[in-house]
Amino acid sequence: MSRPKLEVADVFRRFGAGWRAANEAHISLAQRRVMTAIEICRTAALGGHVERCQDCAHTRIAYNSCRNRHCPKCQWRAAEAWLEARKAELLPVPYFHIVFTLPAVLRPIAYQNKAKVYGLLFTAVAETLTTIAADPKHLGADIGVTAVLHTWGQQLDHHPHIHCIVPGGGISPDGDRWVRCRPNFLVSVRVLSALFRRLFLTGLAKLHAAGELQFFGDSIDLEEAATFKAHVARLASKKWVVYAKRPFAGPDQVLAYLARYTHRVAISNRRLVEIGDEHVGFRWKDYREDGSHRSKMMRLAPEEFMRRFLLHVLPDGFHRIRHYGLFANGHRADKLALCRRLLDVPAPANSCDDEHDCRETVDDHREQPPCPCCGGNMRVIESFDGPMSRPYHVRRLDSS
After folding, report:
1. pTM for the whole thing?
2. What is the dihedral of CA 141, 131, 101, 249, to 10 degrees?
3. What is the largest CA-CA distance in the chain?
4. End-to-end CA distance of the chain
């Protein structure tokens, strides 16, 4: 895969220092760390290693990655490691893709209270799916849910929503059989929407009553209980957006989807088209259009581009990928073994039950890309630290 000519890092390196200085009071420490990580990713600042081809002796320097989960260059390795663990967990049943979206009225509250509101969003979504699926009037089974938080839209605006992957069936209440869903149908989207709305608004009201929400700027009046209640009351009677896509064709399609969505960041480097003194141009998809009209170009001032990108920095330690029901970390291995027994399928040979393999990060140890001159094997002969990793030094790995 060729490296994109333009990168988000180029925008930060070119305009970041001035923007940070001009907006010092409005940038969080987490956002500063993300900017710095992206700026120095795969540069001498983080150190690296020297590789030599075993066939033609061609040498090259490869610099270390920042491994920040918001960096467009670092996520595919994390996705590879995460997907390897998921392969062993897929069941031979249809899988459904369901998306829950937070209403626009609540997005400012979510942005000012990311950890609390995003956490509530996960909880409400998981409880909605597992409750409706367990109801005998719908599916009557214990299901599994893999949920992934995205906070952006195609134009980098703040648009929190959760993508869920759900198998088409579950374990019966007595644990003796696998309950299959109807063809191409899991549960009613209308019913999901109503329960999701009620659970989220109830949880949000509890957070406000407990004084766990903060408000700033134009939202400061929401600190008052009456104002807050009136602000969200109109949402109680409106339909909330829950979208169920067609079921996946098979396990390979599920994995392909997960590879695209689980470790995605707000914008990939490949969407960037131009970086000028006055604007940053990038491609985006307008899903209201069809065919060739869907792909469009957006130009933002560099300052606005950086502001929108940093809207999506998550709180430290916040997990953007979560598992519920049958897939919950505490009993996933046992539940999956029961599912396979009920479905009469063998356990995969590469099954891995270690929960630590589900981490969102991955180290830099990897197979070296082949020699660009002759295609031969590249071997690391030296490694070195950079000024922003550890005290700078060179480690000689091979004296030959």
Report:
1. 0.88
2. 0
3. 75
4. 31
User: pLDDT 10s per residue in the chain (400 long)?
Assistant: 456 789 999 999 999 999 999 999 899 999 999 999 999 999 999 999 999 999 999 999 999 999 899 999 987 777 777 787 788 888 999 999 999 999 999 999 999 999 999 999 999 999 999 999 999 999 999 999 999 999 999 999 999 999 999 999 999 999 999 999 998 899 999 999 999 999 999 999 999 999 999 999 999 999 999 999 999 998 998 999 999 988 887 777 888 888 778 888 999 999 999 999 999 999 999 988 877 788 999 999 999 999 999 999 999 999 999 999 999 998 999 999 999 999 999 887 655 444 444 444 444 444 578 999 999 999 999 999 888 865 444 444 443 3
What's phi and psi for 40, nearest 5 deg? Answer: -100, 0
Helices 302-310, 8-22: axis angle to 10 degrees equals 90
φ/ψ of 175, rounded to 5, equals 75, 15
- Phi/psi-derived region of residue 140, left when phi > 0, alpha when psi is between -120 and 50, beta in every other case: left
Which two three-digit tokens encode residue 328?
A: 């919950």
Q: Which two tokens stand for residue 157?
A: 């605006």
Tell me the one-letter amino acid at 307.
R
Q: 175: buried, middle or exposed (CB in 10 Å: 19+, 13-18, 0-12)?
A: exposed
- For residues 220 and 203, what is the distance between their CA atoms, to the nearest angstrom? 20
Q: What is the DSSP string of 327-354?
A: T-TTTHHHHHHHHHHHHT-PPPTT----
**Dihedral angle sign, alpha carbons of residues 224, 225, 230, 235:** positive
SS3 content of the chain, % helix, strand, coil (to 5): 40, 20, 40
